[in-house]
Amino acid sequence: MGIKKLFIVWLGVMVGLHAAQPRVIAFAQDTMANDFRKAQVFEVRDAVQSLPQVKFTYSDAEGKTALLIAQIEKFIVQKVDVLIVGTNDAKAVVPVVAKAYQNGIAVIILDRGIDGDQYTTFIHSDNIKIGAIGGEYIAKQLNGKGKVLLFEGIQTADVTHLRTQGFMEVMAKYPAIKVIKRTGNYLRKDAIIETEKLLEEGIRVDAIFSESDSMLSGVRTVYYRYGIAPSSVIMVGCDYTSEAQSAILKGEQTGSVLFPLGGNESVEIAQKIFAGLRVPKDLVIPVKLVTRENATIVKPIF
Fold this sequence. Notes:
This protein is an alpha/beta fold and 302 residues long. It contains ten helices and twelve strands. A six-stranded parallel sheet has the order 2-1-3-4-5-11, with helices on both faces. Strands 7-6-8-9-10-12 form a six-stranded mixed sheet, with helices on both faces. β3 (82-86), α4 and β4 form a beta-alpha-beta unit. The longest helix has 18 residues, at 3-20.
């Protein structure tokens, strides 16, 4: 076989190997210590398992913004095909996300938005609506008067401010309802600390709107310890986890606003990108209130 033919055979092999190279979806996640954020990663992982020629990898920034940025930088160097970003800071990650996008990586912003527009698709729910749903339900349960605790999430995340906005806009209609705020960072342990402080200060409330079910779980832990029945307080969370479903059915949580993980939707968008199809810049996933009336028929997000 001549040199020319050998070269043609080698070239064919190399092209074939290149064509067989799997596509890579990478998930740069804020933290795996948060049940919801961990479940997002696992939903993507599970959805990818059924796809031939697609690999999945992820990173855990442990709630550290600098680490998250460094991990995204690493994915850029690795030249992943699709990058899913779950951030804890709407501003800080903008430059590195833009860098990934400018380097030809399809970027999916999941759940928490960023203060920039250099990305492929933003998958999220209407967080103002989530806050409003919780607010209207609590106001109705209180007959328009009482003291309410608003447990907020991470202050640098846009979803926190949007949920608070929706909730407070509703509360503004009810002057006889007093709202106090505490920050639990979407974490059970932080909610435990803040709830203990409130009880030690002698502060009791008639209702709680928690921007995640994980924080409500922390509230209940403290209430049990202090001999307070969770059923004595109106409690509405967000996400609708299996733990929340169980608590609702036991009467220890009043309700939860279902907030989809968005992992399956992320993989669907990735598949369209791989197929060369156009994808929406903005994809909104519906939300709804779950109470004891429909908790047996609505499937928890995890």
